[in-house]
Write a structure and sequence with these properties.
6-stranded mixed sheet, Rossmann fold, globular, alpha/beta, single chain
Length: 563
């Protein structure tokens, strides 16, 4: 029996999604009417780099297509051609039989919705209400119908209570849902999703899965999260170096572990229950409450007491520290915390719990109220302005902090601001690039790197400053499995005091010894990572219940012959 059915989770049969009726006649009608026809598509960036190299692909009405491949394979570039955001250098893209240009392109854009990786790219109004209404208004709808669509879309994504809130005051997960609402309000026929669940807690990830499963049109989804895709899609198109390498059913893709491994897509290195030709199990635990009670690895160098720093004086101390946004909303309240030199601390909690806001205050980006001490000295005024010298932060999206023309200049920027001599700047740049496996990238343009390379470059830029504390906000988001594994290996070699935000239990268990649990802006638990992993109640309370994803994982392992 299908494990997903055993757990009350149903992947709808392929024929149940056919828009022209069930059976062979419906399939023939469907197959005779391509939705997208992509022929000999080539795309070159202005600098001459060829991103797509002769793509031939047909997408049908009602398709649920997973577009997968390593970072830099060309996935995002390809989907930008499906609604005219990018123009082919060579070849042609047809939608409903006609080339995407002129009046037909304008019509197509009203029918094709695209959700970008970064929701800030499509949230730009003063209130969420205005953002969601923008699309229907531009469709020429009357005010009453616009009002109905706005309310319906916000209710679907669970944000109706935030209708009149400025989008930039929302958490990242809330912004993701808000961006989806702006698309759903237009009632599109095609939904294109670029890493829709990146940086979401499992509860919101499941909400996205349910919303997309209920969508009656065509879905094209880019993601590195194969368990999520397995629960959503039936077809998998693999891109490699700008070409379509293979066009599978989803079951065929996930069942072939050698293929996944050869193409950098093998996520099963994370799972302790995974076996490969008799090899010992992976070092990582599985994503489930019931399976987390066995063989959980305790990382090295752990402290047994938490909430109290080791040694005579903590590196960082907070006492009754709070932050309130300009609209009066609390980011977090009454946080008290000690951080010892050398600790690796994970901060977990649901989207909107206050994690990023807390770390932004520690880095001096935001200023809260309460007591903040660094090495026993109060942090305020001039001291806060100079925290960048001792606390380095890597944002969720590394492009937010990459602005120099070359990788060398990017990593050298910080040391130069410190006024270091040229020889020391050069030494730090070489050392930092080598540590993150980017030696030889000195003259590359940062924004031409893959997502994994940009993430490592941002870490190198922080490390070159020799900070006392490194803050990582969702370090593995948007990375393919091979890049993710490489980044984890790199982070294990870095011995700087580290504060890490993640929803990923595997990453937390691998990199951190201590875990702070935030809920509704407060720290409700401060204990060892092992104790956190075994606390099933908190896993559910904080949106970290992996029941659904684990069911998908076990079904995939069954297909691979590993369960």
């Amino acid at each position: 029996m299908n494990i997903l059915h055993e757990e009350g989770i149903c992947r709808k049969p392929w024929r149940d999604r056919l828009p022209f009726g069930e059976g062979e006649s419906g399939r023939r009608a469907r197959d005779s009417r391509p939705l997208f026809e992509i022929r000999s598509l080539v795309y070159r960036y202005p600098d001459g780099l060829t991103a797509l190299k002769g793509i031939d692909l047909t997408l049908l009405p009602g398709d649920r297509v997973a577009l997968v491949g390593q970072n830099g394979a060309g996935k995002t570039t390809l989907v930008k051609h499906l609604n005219g955001l990018a123009k082919p250098s060579e070849g042609v893209v047809r939608y409903k039989g006609d080339v995407l240009e002129g009046p037909h392109l304008r019509t197509a854009r009203l029918e094709i919705g695209i959700l970008f990786q970064d929701p800030d790219d499509q949230l730009f109004s003063n209130t969420l209400d205005e953002d969601v209404a923008f699309g229907p208004l531009n469709q020429g709808l009357r005010s009453r119908e616009v009002e109905e669509r706005v309310l319906s879309a916000l209710k679907k994504v669970g944000l109706e209570q935030f209708r009149y809130r400025p989008p930039h005051f929302l958490s990242f997960g809330q912004k993701k849902r808000a961006a989806l609402a702006t698309i759903l309000a237009m009632e599109p026929q095609v939904l294109i999703l670029d890493e829709p669940t990146a940086n979401l807690d499992p509860k919101q990830e499941k909400l996205f899965q349910d919303l997309i499963s209920d969508f009656s049109g065509t879905v094209i989804c880019i993601s590195h999260d194969l368990p999520f895709l397995y629960g959503l899609c039936h077809r998998a198109v693999v891109l490699e170096k700008g070409r379509v390498h293979h066009d599978f059913t989803m079951e065929e893709l996930v069942a072939s572990r050698p293929y996944l491994r050869d193409h950098g897509l093998d996520f099963t290195f994370r799972l302790s229950c995974c076996r490969d030709n008799g090899d010992p199990p992976s070092r990582d635990p599985v994503h489930t409450v019931d399976a987390l009670t066995v063989n959980f690895p305790r990382p090295s160098g752990k402290t047994e007491e938490h909430g109290k720093a080791n040694g005579p004086e903590p590196l960082i101390t907070l006492r009754d520290y709070s932050y309130r946004y300009p609209d009066g909303t609390w980011g977090f309240r009454d946080v008290s915390l000690d951080v010892a030199t050398g600790e690796r601390i994970a901060i977990v909690g649901e989207n909107g719990a206050g994690k990023s806001t807390l770390l932004s205050c520690l880095a001096g980006i935001l200023e809260g109220k309460g007591e903040y001490y660094m090495e026993g000295k109060p942090v305020s005024g001039k001291v806060r302005k100079h925290l960048w010298r001792s606390i380095g932060m890597v944002f969720q999206d590394p492009t937010d902090q990459l602005f120099c023309p070359s990788c060398w200049d990017e990593v050298a920027f910080g040391p130069r601001q410190l006024g270091l001599p040229k020889s020391l700047v050069e030494a730090r740049v070489k050392e930092s690039l080598a540590l993150v496996r980017l030696s030889g990238f000195e003259n590359r343009v940062p924004h031409h790197l893959s997502a994994g390379e940009r993430k490592r470059l941002a870490i190198a830029a922080v490390l070159a400053m020799k900070p006392q504390v490194m803050i990582l906000d969702e370090p593995t988001s948007n990375l393919d499995p091979r890049s993710e594994e490489l980044l984890c290996d790199i982070l294990q070699e870095i011995h700087t005091t580290t504060l890490l935000i993640s929803h990923d239990i595997d990453i937390i268990s691998l990199l951190c010894d201590r875990t702070l649990v935030m809920h509704h802006g407060r720290i409700i638990r401060d204990y060892s990572t092992t104790d956190f992993i075994h606390d099933g109640h908190l896993l559910t309370l904080n949106g970290l219940d992996y029941t659904y994803k684990n069911a998908c994982c076990r079904e995939i392992l069954r297909l691979q012959g590993g369960a």
